[in-house]
Amino acid sequence: MNKPFDVPVNPDSACQPPSTRDFLVDRIFRGLARVGVILILALVFALIFEVGRKAVPGIEKHGLDVITGTVWDVNQNQYGILPAIWGTLYSALIALLIAGFFGVSMAIFLTQDFLPPRLAAIFRTIVELLAAIPSVVYGLWGIYVVIPTIRPLTDWFHTELGWLPFFGTSLSGPGLLPAALVLAIMILPTIAAVSQDALTAVPMKTKQAAYGMGTTHWEAILKVMVPSALTGIFGSLVLGLGRALGETMALAMLVGNSNQISLSLFAPANTLAALLALNFPEAGPNEIEVLMYAALILMLITLIVNVIGSMIMAYAQRGAKG
Length: 322
Hints:
MetI-like fold; MetI-like_sf
């Protein structure tokens, strides 16, 4: 007599060919997957086409002067977005360096047996909740908390190390550093979550083999686990950089919106996303053409960054397999 939880198993069932129902389910799934891919590609191309169509008049009128110009003056019909391009790349790079270090460190701390599993799950949830906070809240927090907190330290750097171009100006209010710090916190959950998945995906036998060869805990992490998960970790950095390039509201509130190019971390700056958000509501027909041109440049920068990141990841995967 079978026990209550015994389930009769047909030993030949695993050897049976797929049924008509299995073929039907497989075809439906494949069809839905293809439709989903086609819809996503159609949406991307429609977005690029619509932005490009509205940007064409601005491209024809101003050409490359918009990209190389440094003055944005609607009254004089001068539109230069080079400072905004500089601010976009500069702020995103600083935020990526900060968030990359802390995000990967968090991933190591939460996955490599430094905490009990339940406590690690609580901390993981707290980090992921950072992604749910609205951008405008981050902006307000940056204005009322971050800027007053870091101002004494920035004043010291400017006084003592002002001869360095990175500290050549004082922080009088909104500026590049507060914007980059808040931006780093905003992309931190993405980097930490994807890095955790990459480290968790490394087989446990790999870590056990490292211990078997006599490595310490930190040697196993830094010389075995992190290199094994390096492709996934780099993917998290690319995703974080992509979000940093397109972040709008918090940067519009914190970066200072000054059309200038400066290496100083404390100087006000501008970004393409902030430029678009602040100028679109009151833009006239001529300005809209240039703003669409700027939006097209921002999309192109994001595309180039993601393509380069994908190429590096593919190269790293080939090197790992080789």
